[in-house]
Design brief:
The chain is α+β, with helices and mostly antiparallel strands. Helices cover 37% and strands 24% of the residues. Among the domains are: 54-204, Helix Hairpins (Orthogonal Bundle), CATH 1.10.287; 208-368, G protein-activated inward rectifier potassium channel 1 (Immunoglobulin-like). Strands 3, 4, 5, 8 and 11 form a 5-stranded mixed sheet that branches. It has a 4-stranded antiparallel sheet with strand order 7-6-9-10. The protein has a two-stranded antiparallel ribbon with strand order 1-2. A hairpin with a 2-residue loop joins strand 4 and strand 5 (226-235). The longest helix has 48 residues, at 383-430.
């Protein structure tokens, strides 16, 4: 059965009108771009399908240091307990092979009065009266080891050198002496490895890097008549970083003329500090400047092209910790959304009562400055663009100064006018009113005013 057509045309129905009504644009969140170096300095790289896992076991110490703390503590505890249990089993086997675990115990015999001579501490026990070959000249490898529990306690005493004195080894058993030497040597090796691993984890260089900070945003502005890429770095500790150096790299995806795609193409970027000297004196926060010249990978990028480009600027700060002598490294990166074109860092170092003070609350603050929106190549080809921009900046600066001066004058005039009108109103309120009296006169009317 066919559907009945409506009298109202479809274009004038509710669906048609709704489809033709203007809609507000819907802004969707932009997908976060993958970055190679996170803001905290960690490498955002996942290793998959590694077939040669045995290479990690060849360098056990570095593997233990790289593990997380929870895994390190588990391995630390498991290693010691396993070594104690292993040598406890060895001591128990030595006692069992020597016959020290027999039911006939000279200590119990002494308690019942069956043995009346001999010294249990020396390892020799004899029976008084009729000589019994079973108990005459009885020797022990380790005194007072009667079960696996006592063997385990003796193993702990040997390896950690506690020595409570209840159990001891005798000179009558060469096997026990050999086990004692082996346990001491292996225990020292385990202690050295585990304690060295714990020390290296607590004194890792990345702990010192936590107090080396970078500005959240990078800026591009004109400095010394050149377009420059700038970041700010600082050290929160008073202890110095000796021989500090800063390296900048631009990482982006490129394609060679042969058609080869390089997903991580690293390009070194020169800085003014690297050209002037080999190291930084990181006493106060510094602004690292990179001049965008012909050798710069940012030479052909304008402000609009920079926002649409897929690049990442990696900053690496290296140096030697003054207190420990360990080399440390701090890293961060800036993607295109984190580069502010036409901004400049505000000054944060001031002199107060003969002491230089650093206000870290303004560490990442920037201000807008007049900057050409074109690329550095266009500025080199047309220097007039930079001149016109600087002239406009100077004019705008003068206009702003004039506006400020005029506003100050108006405010001062208003204050002075307000201050003069007050007394006048008060005096007028206190003045006496004028009264006029009219009196008739001959031949006319004379008007006399009396106040």
């Amino acid at each position: 059965m066919l559907a009945r057509k409506s009298i109202i045309p479809e274009e004038f129905g509710l669906p048609g009108l709704a489809s033709r009504m203007p809609r507000k644009p819907v802004f969707r969140d932009r997908v976060n771009k993958a970055r190679f170096i996170a803001k905290n300095g960690s490498c955002n790289l996942a290793h998959k399908n590694i077939r040669e896992q045995g290479r990690f076991l060849q360098d056990v110490f570095t593997t233990l240091v790289d593990l997380k703390w929870r895994f390190t503590l588990v391995i630390f505890t498991t290693t010691f307990v396993s070594s104690w249990l292993l040598f406890a089993m060895s001591w128990w086997l030595v006692a069992f092979a020597h016959g020290d675990l027999d039911s006939g115990d000279p200590d119990s015999a002494f308690a019942h009065g069956d043995l009346d001579s001999g010294d249990p501490d020396s390892g020799n026990v004899t029976r008084g009266g009729d000589a019994d070959p079973r108990w005459q000249n009885k020797t022990y490898c380790v005194t007072d080891v009667k079960s696996f529990t006592s063997a385990f306690l003796f193993s702990i005493e040997v390896q950690v050198t506690i020595g409570f004195g209840g159990r001891m080894i005798t000179e009558h058993c060469p096997t026990a002496i050999t086990v004692l030497i082996m346990q001491n040597i292996i225990g020292l090796i385990i202690n050295a490895v585990m304690l060295g691993c714990i020390f290296m984890k607590t004194a890792q260089s990345n702990r010192r890097a936590e107090t080396l900070i970078f500005s959240r945003y990078a800026v591009i502005a004109v400095r010394n008549n050149c377009l420059c890429f700038m970041i700010r770095i600082g050290d929160l500790r008073k202890s110095m970083i000796i021989g500090a150096t800063v390296r900048l790299q631009v990482v982006r995806k490129t394609t060679t003329p042969e058609g080869e795609v390089i997903p991580i193409h690293q390009i070194d970027v020169a800085t003014e500090t690297a050209v002037a000297s080999n190291s930084l004196f990181l006493l106060a926060p510094l602004i690292i400047c990179h001049v965008i010249d012909k050798n710069s990978p940012l030479y052909d990028l304008s402000a609009m092209e920079l926002q649409c480009s897929d690049l990442e600027v990696i900053v690496i700060l290296e140096g030697v910790v003054e207190t420990t002598g360990i080399t440390t490294q701090a890293r961060t990166s800036y993607i295109s959304e984190e580069i502010q074109w036409g901004h400049r860092f505000v000054p944060i170092v001031t002199e107060e009562e003969g002491v230089y003070s650093v206000d870290y609350s303004k560490f990442g603050n920037t201000i807008k400055v007049t900057t050409p929106r074109c690329s550095a190549r266009e500025l080199d080809e047309k220097p007039s663009i930079l001149i016109q921009t600087l002239q406009k900046s100077e004019l705008s600066h003068q206009n702003s100064l004039r506006k400020r001066n005029s506003m100050r004058r108006n405010n001062s005039m208003r204050k002075s006018a307000g201050g003069g009108a007050g007394p006048r109103r008060n005096n007028s309120g206190l003045a006496l009113p004028k009264v006029q009296f009219f009196t008739p006169a001959e031949g006319g009317q004379n008007m006399n005013a009396v106040t």
